[in-house]
Amino acid sequence: MVFDFFKKAQTEATEQMSAIATGLAKSRNQLLYNLEDSFALDSKNGMNLMDQLEETLLQADLGMATTDDVLEEARYLRSESTEIFGRDEIKALLRGKLLEALGASAMGSSEYQRVQKRAGKDIAAATAVGGEEETDNVNSFALKFASEDDPKPISAKKQLTVHFIMGANGMGKTTTIGKLAHRLKEEAGQKVLLAACDTFRAGAVAQLERWAERADVDCFSPNETTNGPSAVLYGALDKAISEEYDVLLVDTSGRLSNNDALTAELVKMKKVIQKRMSTSFDEKVRPVPNLKVPHETLLVIDAAQGRMALDSAKQWNKELGLSGLILTKLDGSAKGGSVVAVSRELGLPVKLVGVGEGIDDLRDFEPKSFVDGLLGIGVAGGGSSKEGKALEARLSEMRKERTQRAKTAPKPSSPSGASPMDGPAGQMTLQGLENIGSMDMEEDVSEMQMITPGAGATQNNKAKNKSKKKKKRKNKK
Hints:
Structural class: alpha/beta
Order of helices and strands: HHHHHHHEHEHEHEHEHEHEEHHHHH
């Protein structure tokens, strides 16, 4: 049983990498086509590799900050070297810088980690058999769930995980909730409840109910007594706690960040969760808000919008405190690079990506799988699965070579024939300033001519003749 589990984990991780690579096909084809153009430089356009590379990265929607980082290190690695970057060197550099931008180490955790965590009971059994203690590798890209060690909510018999999911209309929010519910039930055996709190958009409740039916999970919908967003949420929390659900997924009203009334409703809903999930009372026997919930506050963003969604995301992050992003419709856009730009600028990890329209097409975000899929590395490019490690080693080698060149490079010396009065870049030294006083300036001053701007040769000659007459009078005396 244990060996079957790990075999299944490896198979699912391979399928995950393949699905992400397929979803990134449009973004990858566009980026690789432009990169190839960068190497096939036309001498007529007067652009060098760095100029072409900058244009390519910006067109890929990677953002100015990441583009600048790549170009800065590219110039640094090329300095004091006659070698020219080849395709592998550029790929190695891009791969390393994109992983850094996403906050992931190129020596990161196993691609199978999330699959293993979703089957916690089997892992515990494997640990017992092997006799080794499992260490928890914290991964900010993984969804957070309630821990058995945390205090339970008042009157609750078991832990409840709450994920608060928001986003503007048309981003794929409700669809994403349905797909996530399906994964939690099928892959982790979780008992899932959906809360239909989007009471503003016509048809939103019915849409979520259809997804609940497809995913074979329950849905708590508005009724005559609970028809407002916060009232529906409170009712869903009551049901989830009393009927011992594992996960509650909260669907919220689609909105723009500049709609103050709806944003205030979101803030109120978050407070409802914290109050109903209270684990203790104060001295006046009032529930103390549980600030550790919701366990996730996720913003759904359409990949086609890319960086255009940044302003709204910043406002929601300020008002509600986002914990992560879900990027949808990645398969229908050539702007896959926006994942890097948005995640970096907001300082938030991407948790999930939508790579298709099927119910199984919501995938965990793996930085390595994503970057390799975007750049056509390894399986995504029809090559070996070891290509990523080879490029990682090449980048490390280039950085070591550059450090070694910096150590052995000769120190710049002063140019021959330079005056001791000359300082760096032709500036006069302090010692030179002290020697000025000892110079005999009288004779030089006597020979100086007063040049008047715009004066012709006649006026300048007059000044010269006048100076000669003064000398003659002095000699006669």
